[in-house]
Amino acid sequence: MSLLQPSCDGPALIVCSTCRWSAQEREDEQGVRGGARMFEALTDAARDDNRLELLKIEQMPCLFNCSQHCSVHLRGPGKIGYVLGKFEPTSEAARAILDYAAAWLESDEGVVPYRQWPQGVKGHFIVRVPPPGMTVVS
Question: pTM of this prediction?
Answer without folding.
Answer: 0.94
